[in-house]
Amino acid sequence: MSKSESFPLGRDRKGVLWDVMMYIPTVGGLAGVSFMFWYDGNKGLAYLLFFLACFFFYQGLHRILQRVVLLPSSPVELDVSKQRVLLKSRNGESVELVKDLRYFSDYAGKSFALSGMDMMGSKRQYVFHRGQFVDEVAYKKAAAALKPFA
Questions:
Q1: Could you tell me where the DSSP H helices lie in 41-149?
Q2: What's the pLDDT score for residue 2?
Q3: Helix (H, G, I), strand (E, B) or coil at 109
Q4: Residue 129 buriedness (CB in 10 A; 0-12 / 13-18 / 19+)
Q5: Coil, strand or helix: which one is 42?
Q6: Which pLDDT score, from 0 to 100, does residue 8 have?
Q7: Dihedral of the CA atoms 50, 22, 129, 102 (nearest 10)?
Q8: Residue 48: pLDDT band by 50, 70, 90 thresholds?
Q9: Under 8 Å CB-to-CB from 120, ≥6 apart: which residues?
């Protein structure tokens, strides 16, 4: 790969639906059991379960907003070359990962992650889902272009 390859990223509506179906019952169940323990008098366990409900709520919200590209830091384009990976964000900022670049794929082939240091020395981490790419061919092409960083 002598030149860079660019991959536009979009909204993953199918993945968002899956996340919503997973996080809403989890958060609701944890909060409900937390309130049951609170009124039963076991406040220590109630605090723990309510903390877990809040944690899953914030994690789920962040994951959903990242998948629908609503966060300003959400990547909208992935540009891969031999030496670096350039990510363009929704807010117009470009992040160039140049050092300690690592590629992690899952076993199911539905997502992959990138981590590395940018030009300022900050560690950055990103997760990309198959539904964010234009089609299956673009996803596989991006994964193949990132394999040398594994």
A1: 43-67, 136-146
A2: 53
A3: coil
A4: buried
A5: coil
A6: 93
A7: 40
A8: very high
A9: none
The three-state secondary structure class of 99 is strand
Give the Cα separation of 38 and 49 in Å (integer): 10
Mean pLDDT (whole number) for 32-54: 96
Alpha carbons within 13 angstroms on the beta-carbon side of residue 39 total 5
- Give the model's confidence band at 84: pLDDT under 50 very low, under 70 low, under 90 confident, else very high: confident
pLDDT digits (tens, 9 = 90+) for 102-125: 999 988 888 999 999 988 989 999
Q: Which of 101, 108, 98 is nearest to 146 (CA)?
A: 101
Strands (DSSP E) contained in 18-139 are 75-80, 85-89, 94-97, 99-105, 111-117, 123-129
Question: Beta strand 94-97 with 111-117: parallel, antiparallel or unpaired?
Answer: unpaired
* Residue whose token pair is 């323990």: 37
| Average pLDDT of the residues in 58-74 | 90
Of 80, 81, 79, 77, nearest in space to 2 by CA = 81
